[in-house]
Structures are given as C-alpha cells and as structure tokens.
Amino acid sequence: MNRTIHFTLNGKSVTREAPTHRLLLDLLRDEIGLTGTKEGCGTGDCGACTVMLNGKPVNSCLVLSGELDGADIVTIEGLNIGPELHPVQKTFLQDGGAQCGYCTPGMLMMSKALLDENPNPTEDDIRYALSGNLCRCTGYAKIIQAVQDAAAILRNKNV
Amino acid sequence: MSELTVVGKPVQRVDAEEKITGRAVYGYDLVLPNMLYGKTLFSTKAHALIKRIDTEKAKKLPGVVAVVTGEDVRWTHGESVKDKPFLAQGKVRFIGEPVAAVAAEDEDTAQAAVKLLEVEYEDLPVYTDPEEACKPGCVAIHEDFDKYRKAEFIVPGAMPNVAEHFKLRTGNVEQGFKESDLVLEERYFVPIIQHAAMEPHSAHAQFDRESGRLTIWVANDAPFRALHEITEALNMPKEKIRFINPLQGGGFGSKGGLKVEPIAVALAFHTNGRPVRVKFNREETFISTLTRHEAVVYSKTGVKKDGTLMAREMTIYWGAGAYAEKSPTVCIRGSLPAPGPYRIPHVKVDGYAVYTNKPVAGSYRGYGIPQGAWAGEQQMDEIAHRLGMDPIDIRMKNIFVEGDISYWGERLHAVGLKETLIKATEAIDYGKKSPNPKPGIKTGKGFACIQKPTRSPTTSAAGVLVNAKGEVTVLAGTVEIGQGCNTILSQVAAEELKVPMDKVRMHPLDTDVIPYDASTTSSRSTYHMGNAVRRASIHAREQIMEAARPMLEAEMREIDYADGKVFLKAQPQQALPIGEVVRRKLGINGEVRGDGSYTYEIGKDLDLETGHSDHASAFYMYATQAAEVAVDEDSGRVRVLRMSAAHDVGKAINPLNCVAQIEGGVVMGIGSALHEEMVVDPSGKVRNPSFLDYHLATSLDIPELISIVVECAEPEGPYGAKGLGEPGLAPTPAAIGNAVADAIGVRIYDLPLKPENVYWAMQKQKKKSAA
Prior knowledge:
- Chain A has helices at 24-32, 87-95, 104-117, 123-129, 141-158, and strands at residues 2-9, 12-19, 50-53, 56-59, 72-74.
- By secondary structure, chain A is an alpha+beta fold.
- In chain A, strand 3 and strand 4 (56-59) form a beta hairpin.
- A seven-stranded mixed beta sheet of chain B has the order 3-7-1-14-11-12-13.
- The interface between A and B is large, with 55 and 56 residues.
C-alpha cells in the first residue's frame, strides 16, 4: 500500500509517496539516492545503516516508511555543520578512524548521538555506545580515540 | 636521491574524506541507468542431483525479464581447478550453491519470481567432515574431477575427494624421533570462520550485443584474475571484457575470485543489453560466498632435552568445502611453513585439501598460516613445559635467523623474527605473573611466532602521469579494500617525484586502462606494486629531466631534480617546475607518462615431490604477538587484557598505516580465537548465518593494543619494505591459546575458546586432579 509521507531530511522538508513496508534504509538509498547510509546486514545487527530519527540513533533497516510521517531524519550527508565537518568527522580523519569506510557513516552517526547526549563520555561509555556498530577493519581502537578527541573539541568549544 | 621526505612519514589516508562524508560509492551502492535487479535461488540441499527445475511460473510473472539456470549457461570456472559452474549443472554440492537466477524490473518482483521457481532434488550422501570425506569408499563429490581443466601444480590425492596433496620431505622424521628425548603428538582443530567484510557481496554486468563487449562492475580485489577467469570460462577475447572497480568495503580474501560475478554475467546475456545488478544480502553472503578453511592438524614433534628441535611431522586436512577455489594453493602455502619458523633437521608434512558438502573455503587473511600456528605454536609451549624450559628460551634456541637454510631449502635473509620475539614479550612483561584481579578470575600470558610467505612469482605494473599543472596520476591495479594502498602508493609517487601528497591522485580502477597487476592479496602490494610505482615514477622523472635539459641549455650531468623541479646544479635558482616542463614540451593538455613493472623473477615453483624451493617467496614476513588474558572460572569466559604485536615490516612506508593494519588484524584474530565459528549441522546447513549468531569482535571485546614496528630491511623491497596485511591475525589465536593454558593449567586444542569449551576443560582438569 502506498502512502504519502512528509518528513524533514537533513534539514529540508521532503514529500514522498512510498509503500508503507519500504524500509527507511531502502527509501534513502534507492528512492532518494542518498547512498551514504550503508547496508551491512539488513537485520539490525551491524549498525552500518544508523541514522538519527527524531534525535535518536536508529538502524534504518528496522524502520518502515509508514512510520515516518512528520519525522526528522539526519543521515551522514547531513552530519556536517554548514560547510564545516562535524568534529567527529574531523577526528575520524585525523586519527585514522576509517579504513574501508563501509561502517564509518554508521559509526559517525552513533558517535554523534553519544556526544549529543553525553559530552563527557568515558572510554567505557564510548565502547558501550558503539558496541552495536561492527567494524571489521580497524580493531576499534582508533575509532574510540576519535570519539574521545571529538568530545575534547566539543568541550573546548563550549567553554 | 636525497633523504626521504614522504616515505616513512605518518601521512593521513588519502581516501578518508570521501568516506567520512558519505560521498564514497561502493559496489553495493552502484546504480546504473536502465538497470535490472537480479535475485538468486540457492540450493537447499548439500549434495543432491537436480531432477527438475520449473521456471515457467517465474517467467510469467509481470516485470520478470530473464530467468536462467545451469541449462542456459554451461560455463565453469575456478582459479586452479575449473570445477565450479556459473549455476549448478545437474547436481548441487552445498547448501547455498546458486541454482537459478532472475532479473526483473525491481527488487520485489525479482524476489517474488525466485519464490516461484521449483526444484526437485534427489539426495546423495553428505560429507561435512574433511577427515571423513577422504576415507576409502566415500562417494566422489566431483565425479568428473579427473576431467576438469587444472593448473600444472595440482597433485590430486590418492584418496577420494582430495583436490590437492602437498608433500614436504626433509631429512628422515623417523630417525629424528628416535634421536629425540621427548616426542609429543596431538590433534588440533580450527573451525570454519568467515571474512564478514562489512560490505556484502554484489556485482553488476552488462553485455552489449552490438559491440560484443561484456562489462562487469564489481568490488573484486583481483580484477585482472577475474578478467582472466571470465575470459577462459566464456572463451571470449580478453579485449571484449572490462572490469570496473567501484570502492570496496573490506575483503580479507573474500572478494577475489568469482562469487556474484558469474550470476550477474549469466543474467546479462539474457537481458537485451540492459545492465543487471545482483546483490547478496548478509545471509546469502554467509552461505554462498567464501569461508576460511576448517583444519584438522596432527602435529608430532621430537626434541632433545636441551630444547633442540629434531623432527616435526604434520598432517593437515584442509576442509575445502564444495569447490576447489583457492584450496590447492592454501593447502600448499599454508602447509609448507606450518612446522613454524624454526631450524628443524627432519620435517615431514602432508597437506590434503578435501572436498566436503559445505560452503566453499578460500583465501582468508593469513592464507593457512593461522591454522598451522594454532597447532605448532601451542605445541612449542607444551614441549617447553614438559622440558621445564621457558617458552622464550626454547624458541630462541631454534628460531630462524639471518642466513639459515629453511627446511624447504631456501636461504633466508632479512629475518627480523628474534627482535619481534623480544619486543612483543617485553611489552607485556612476559615471565612476570600478573596479579589475579579478583577471586574466581585466573590470569595468564602467552605468545606465538609466525613466518609468512607471499605468493610468488607475481607481477605488478604501473603507470604514472604528470600533467602541465604538475599534478601526478598513478595508474595501479592494486585495489583499495581499506588496507590503505592508495595512500602508500601515492606516497611512493610523491617521494620519487618530490611533489606534495595533495598533488597525487589514484586513477579509478578499470582494466581497460590500468596496467596489469596479479592481485591485491597475500600482503604483496606494498612490495610489488610499490616497486612498480617507484619505477614508473622514476621513469617519468627521467623523461621530464630529459625534456628540461634543452630548456635549461645544459648537459644531463649539469642538472638535478628536487622539490618537483629540475634545476641547474651550478645555479639552483635556475629551476623549472615539472608542470612547466610538461607544458613547454607537450602543451597545456600534455602529459608525460612513466611506466614501470616489477616481477620477482627468481621465484621458483616448489618441487612437487619434496616441497622444496630455493626461492619460494619474494619475501617473508615475521611476527610475534603476546597476550595477557583473564579467565572467569565460573563461566569459562576469556577476556584478553593486553595484546602486543611486533611485526617485521622491512620498512614502514607509513607508520600510521602499519599500526592500522596490525590493530585490525589482531582484533580480527581475537574474534577468531574467542568466538567466531560457522556452525554447520550434519545436513550441511549453516546454523548461524547472521551477525546476531555469528559473533564478530565488538568494541567491548578489545584489549589494550600495543603495536610494535620492527624494520629489518628487505633489499629488493621499495625502501626496504615487505608486507603487513595478513600477519596481524595469524599468531593471535595461538598466543591467546598459550595464555589461556598458562592461566588455567590445562591446554585446549580446539578453537574457538568459547566459554563452554574453556569451562569444560577446567572441569575435566579438576576431576583429574581430584582423582
């Protein structure tokens, strides 16, 4: 069944007709053409497709289009702040948080979600926050470092 | 040339920015104009004859454009044994084998059509154990094995279902055991695991009838080998086939060879020229692409009282799964150094690659080294304990050093192993007991050493373009799979042309324009392609200097090159930037092209009877890793607290990237040591084909990581470099195994060290000591 949905995507309002069973992940990638959000498993087990939905991180492979009317969605393409990269994007660059890069958009969105909620995360906080985001390349250490460094940048900004 | 300016420096990755902004387009993301969507029907039987396939209902579904089965495509492929049909022909050999495929206007229709396909099977005996599948009387999984086209080096076994039998014969092991004071014999087991690259597999293909050209877009880490395999299978001229590589989201060995490609190609010949995309989802990737070989390893070692190794005999059954894929070469190159990096006078190894009715096994980061090390390095520790020796001392006594002749007959050079052993063990205070943190928790330490060869002989070729703006483009067939080759190769070009890194870019990979490269495998790229790019850069520089000479009105001996400029030695201020030289010589759109290639020319094939070769590998990588673990006595759960990893890389072209490769390899190894295992039931069905049930290491599983780079320069390597992609994983499980044995006082011979295995081992030990 098709349904017309209105939502905000990376700050812009969007109106779309989509089958209610279409996954948010597929809506973003196949219909809107934003392929920065990655599909790693399609079953909510890997975190590669993490986006922000109404300010909370979700696996977009577990969200149906039918639920999206009125929603506010931010994807990796909307993570930067104007022309500036988000601090966590900068620290992923600097610390080597990305290798093959396929888990990276999901990692970044989950890191942003953590930092939005907890600007002073401990290493354990970061490990727990990212434990649903699988990475096969980096061994996680550089990712954890990048989130710590991003937290430091954000703290300095707020001082 | 003067001292190094870019090589050896911690340069940031050149490909990171597109990855952190979501702009990077991977194979799985790729959309082509007018594209059709392909879906695959997989076998539900592990070993069966196909009695009937009914495609009529699927064909009639509106929106379906093509339905293909093995009847439509008679092609077969395989790296060294041409045993795998594009789509099953007459029989299936594992659950997950592609049987038929559909192309439709959209994904939903394709999926619905696959459900309308009907297949009738007649069951055959199912073999899931490599040791059992080669017993006399077993039914041949490949009844036509003798008739298959095969590589020259294949030695089929005398037993059923053996696709390759590797033999190493040095000295006389029986005599060696007689002369030993202690002989230990044990069986070790390593289960099937999977690469689990975060990007699942996919491929796009298009066949244009007018031009007769076939184009394949795929994240494949050996596009030239894939091109060769398709050429051979289809009997088409090479010029008619083109591979284009979108970005690849990890590989670890899973994305070389042909996986989804044959299905996309089969469909592309039935879609009237429209491109077709075939994607595997995660479950399909688990069951139908590639796994790492399960291995049963029997190891028998004889040693003198003083710890001198006398003899080692190993018999290894490599579970190949249903098709040979890279099993013959994994069997050869994994079995050869399995006895370990030690001087041993008497060695006998028999490696058997055995067909089973399980998912296909192939190359996996480490190429057989982790399996051998799991057995050999644990046995080294056990021998040390039985002799009352320190595990460091027994290794120091026997370990390969510069100039040693290995047991396969090669004189070794650039051997940094001893230094890795010392540094890795020191880093975790090996030998000092770690305090038991709480009651019920036992701690222990262990380490393991490895030596890894690389695929030899092989060739890499490269081109380097310099334009009139002084910008450099590198044409190299090495695939950026996450390992950082684009950064390393850019550094090499920047170094030789003395330009800043931001002036260098890597050309996208397209077999129509990129020079030949053997493969992005075997930790070979920095060494082989590094040499090729270096030579191509020097070739470009020489042409630029030659072109600049008349412009500077000088002789060659009067000019020199620095900072991207050609200058007069006598008047260095008289300098021409390379862009200007190109512009004046060839015009504003001109380009100077340098070419270079590298082949490890003296590489020799192994003798088929003895396994000997005096140049078996272009170079050898050496590493030692040491682990400190904590074991929970109540649950058997193992936690790795610290892990040091010392790797002899020859020369670190990019120290940041070295650490990245080591950390990634170590953590992948921790997963394989503690929890990774593809569970296959007796019917051949994978029981855990999801990330929910197949436990990769997560951010909660990682220990303190201590990466140590040792530089024992390889004279033939670029700037002395060897390779590093694979060795981070290889000694990890054995080091953890030794640490667990140190902690709990009992040794576990089967991977993974999951809580129930460790718990029951401790219970057994308790009962034993009570009795």
